[in-house]
Amino acid sequence: MTVHFSSRVDISEPNPIAAAQAKAAADGIALGKLNDSNPTRHGLAPKEIPSIYEANPRGPKAARKALAAFLGSRNGQAVDPERLYLLSSTSEAYSWLIKLLCDAGDAVLAPKPGYPLIESIAGLECVHAIEYQLRYDGAWYIEPADIAAILDSPEGERVRALVLINPNNPTGSYVKENEREALVALCRERGIAIIADEVFFDYDLEPLAANRRLAGEEGALTFALDGFSKMLAAPHAKVGWIQVSGPEHDVAEAQRRLDVIADDYLPMSDIIAGRIPALLDAADAQTDRVRARVRGNLAALHGMLESDELGVTDVLRPEGGWNVLLRVPSVLDENELVLKLITDHRLTGQPGYFFDMTSNGYLAVSLLPEPDEFARGIAAVLDTVRAMLG
């Protein structure tokens, strides 16, 4: 089934002048422009930024080529730089893709428990976020039948995209191979696009089996999101990207519209883009550094929980990412737990209900802090649990 695209994006036929300009470009004819208002083409660029600005909607081509080579080498599968869009963040990518796929009143499916970003961005676009529940049975998993049931319901008629976070935050669960096959087939059958957020993919902790990225998936129209925020632990770099894949017809129609959105925003700075090749050269070493930190802290966490005399606090199995969920006795109120941490230890945190956990007794914890700081934080949680239980 063909994917539905929103009516927001104007893809009407070009006027005669635009058509003539396009033909001249295709024939290799360079046209002068009486209306050229790009100052960098007229010797007016500042000496600190002397390059000529090309305003490529998908991002500077040299940067996309470098990124495509990196992704192809990492994943063992060639990546076409023309299937990549550079932008400032995955949050911006969500916004673009909701514009691309959804009219006002349409909906996207988003996982719960989960970080509440998608609902907020969807709301800004006048689009609904319909939650689907991850299930837990010693490990988190997606039940494809749950997704099908939502799509078969009255509200399912307006669903335009399925968001898969691989691995999810804060549950740390990857999309399993059997889940992937079923969900790709379901989306292809229903004409629904997949938005795959894979920013934490490289930070595997305790995976159940080998996992695969959804980037490059050909079975259904797929938009894979990634960026330097997690890969380089550099949210201040402000570099993210969308990789488009799927059936050729769907990809062509999607890119025709996505080019319009990208051209309206042109978010990628040439200054930052110029540094992308060097940053990619540093990516493997930096990812290894961060992975060593989070794995080390997870090992320390297991040790502290095992040696805790009370023994009532544990951690839900984290397959990947750099956050985990502590489980404390459900008789303890989550708000009271965090408020007591603030009062007694000058520490704050995020209780499970912030992520729409379906029951009480959870606390999200980052694995990023320096080891001594991390250990002090966990000790404070255990002390607070002990004090609250009396």
UniProtKB/TrEMBL annotation:
Under the heading SUPFAM superfamilies, the entry gives: PLP-dependent transferases
| Signal peptide, first to last residue | none
Q: Which coenzymes or cofactors are required?
A: pyridoxal 5'-phosphate
EC number(s) stated in the UniProt entry for this protein: 2.6.1.2
Molecular-function GO term, any one: pyridoxal phosphate binding
Start and end residues of each Aminotransferase class I/classII large domain: 57-361
Q: Which family does it belong to?
A: Belongs to the class-I pyridoxal-phosphate-dependent aminotransferase family.
Supply the PANTHER family for this chain. GLUTAMATE-PYRUVATE AMINOTRANSFERASE ALAA
Protein name per UniProt: alanine transaminase
Q: Which organism is it from?
A: Bifidobacterium erythrocebi
